[in-house]
Design a protein that fits this description.
Length: 86
């Protein structure tokens, strides 16, 4: 039986402390996970565009109040995804 690939997760926040904390929590829960980080919305879009099918992100943890990404409407239109917000 083939082992499943570890999750590939993009963590995007303009505050380094938040990014680092989220990455630590993800790695504690899924030690084999691969986390990439982005500090602005343009970097998020660039990383998504640069990913291919083999390296596609399984999840994106996105700060909805980053500069340029002003709330769920802009993010949803830009990313063309369903956003799950509390």
């Amino acid at each position: 039986m083939q082992n499943p690939k570890p999750p590939n997760i993009l963590v995007a926040d303009d505050h380094a402390m938040m990014r680092d904390g989220i990455v630590l929590m993800i790695q504690a829960a899924w030690p084999d996970s691969r986390c990439e980080i982005a500090d602005d919305f343009q970097s998020v879009m660039a990383k998504i565009d640069a990913s291919n099918d083999a390296e596609r992100f399984n999840a994106i943890v996105l700060d909805l109040r980053m500069p340029v990404c002003v709330g769920p409407t802009v993010c949803r239109k830009s990313l063309n995804v369903l956003l799950v917000c509390p």
